[in-house]
Design goal:
A 6-stranded mixed sheet has the order 6-10-11-9-8-7. It is α/β, with parallel strands linked by helices. Strand 4, helix 10 (240-248) and strand 5 form a beta-alpha-beta unit. The protein has helices at residues 3-27, 33-55, 63-84, 91-115, 143-148, 150-156, 168-178, 183-201, 220-231, 240-248, 256-262; strands at 138-141, 163-167, 207-210, 234-237, 253-255, 272-276, 279-280, 286-290, 296-300, 309-320, 323-330. Helix 3 (63-84) runs antiparallel to helix 4 (91-115) and helix 6 packs parallel to helix 8 (183-201). The protein has 3 domains: 3-115, no CATH class; 138-262, Rossmann fold (3-Layer(aba) Sandwich); 272-333, OB fold (Dihydrolipoamide Acetyltransferase, E2P). The N and C termini lie far apart (68 Å).
Amino acid sequence: MTTLTLIRGLFILLSMAIGYQFGVVLKGVDGPAGFIGACLGLLGAILIILAEVARKRISTRGLSSAVFGLIFGLLVSRLLLDSILFIPMDENVALFLRMAVTTLFCYLGMVLALRGRNEFNLIVPYVRFAGQEEKTGFVILDTSVIIDGRIADMVRTNFIEDKLILPRFVLKELHQIADSSDALKRNRGRRGLDVLNHIRKESRVDLKIDETEFPQIKEVDGKIIRLAKILNAKILTNDFNLSKVASIQGVKVLNINELANFLKPVVLPGEKLEIKIVKEGKEHNQGVGYLDDGTMVVLENGRSMLGQTLTVVISTVIQTQAGKMIFTKLEKQK
């Protein structure tokens, strides 16, 4: 049961209780007035909820926003009642009015806070309650993209304008890697910590640490996806598996590797390249070299030319999930 469903249920029960009490006060317990009043309270609550739902679909932000809305509703209802109750009226009517106005404004306050339409920058340090017209969002960093290091360059070039979120469990995993007994893992972890320090020093980016924990979820990837759903955030990663799982679950993913592949220079069949053959290929008699951006170039009949720098002609370009592969022939074999 969501927080919003619970609030709606309590609002309906309170409305029925107010209607019943009002009927009893007016006609006494013996008559059906109490039952009629409860039915009217139920009907009124349903109409208000339907009107609120029809206006806009609500996305809950958590109990903290509901508490803020409750306090806001209490303050508004108190100010309104202090003005209305100056008017002479029956004591029972005043009691009913006080209960009805307080309940109504508490409900509306919680709903508006949960909707987050007024850009409340309160309650949670970095979780904004902003309208849909707000373009700036949240991007959650995973461990792989921090260790990769290219995120620091993206921040320096203003490529990312969103607010960066670093989950505490990701930072914990990074510390564990930095403290590993394996020298390679230890170096990768320390590099990741250095990257975070560089990002934090950049005044043009807002990096916040999220303290949310999900003890029922063991895998870090699962925690990241869960947090992204709660914050309606995107995930910045270069992990292929995390990208696929998150996309299946409806979470937006920014994959640096995919971006890098799409930004590589376009080459066409028939163009010439100068390439150094550095190793043997997987297939028979193939040689392999690499462009400056890391693109693999496969040369037919190039196994015997290891260590040589050759001018080759592109025959085929294949786009794979891992990147582009360029198949070539020697210029004289064109």
